[in-house]
Specification:
globular, mainly alpha, 139 residues
Length: 139
């Protein structure tokens, strides 16, 4: 963990299987909070786009550093606000606007499949992935 109030940016696939679902739940909460706070136009299915997932995870972590008081550098906060405009550009992919209540079931199905497939990959080992017949997950 980071020395900065326990906020750490990690890839969900590197977590122990029991912590992966929690990572996705935290990302859902962070993405919806970012969308509301900064009027970001998330698109339905953002969780299926690896670039959007990584960008939203990074911004969620970055913002938590300021919200928790772990980072109080005003120039860093201004930089975060400037970078929000770049984030808007990354979030343009997708046909339909994100609606949390409508999209939650699709998110749940995706996460269940992604977390389950990642666990199967870990059990199969790197050499056994092709033999296991597992589909690619998030890149």
């Amino acid at each position: 963990m980071s020395e900065m109030s326990g906020v750490e940016l990690v890839d969900w696939r590197g977590l122990p299987p029991g912590q992966r679902r929690g990572w996705w739940e935290h990302l859902w909460d962070g993405a919806t909070a970012l969308a509301q706070r900064y009027r970001l136009a998330l698109r339905s299915g953002w969780w299926e786009d690896q670039i959007q997932v990584e960008a939203l995870a990074a911004f969620t972590c970055w913002l938590e550093l300021y919200d928790s008081g772990a980072n109080t550098d005003p120039t860093g906060k201004v930089q975060l606000l400037w970078e929000i405009e770049r984030l808007r550009g990354l979030l343009r992919a997708g046909e339909h606007a994100f609606h949390p209540e409508r999209d939650r079931p699709a998110f749940e199905r995706y996460v269940a499949a992604a977390v389950g497939a990642a666990g199967e990959r870990a059990r199969a080992g790197e050499e056994g992935i092709e033999r296991a017949g597992l589909p690619p997950v998030l890149g």
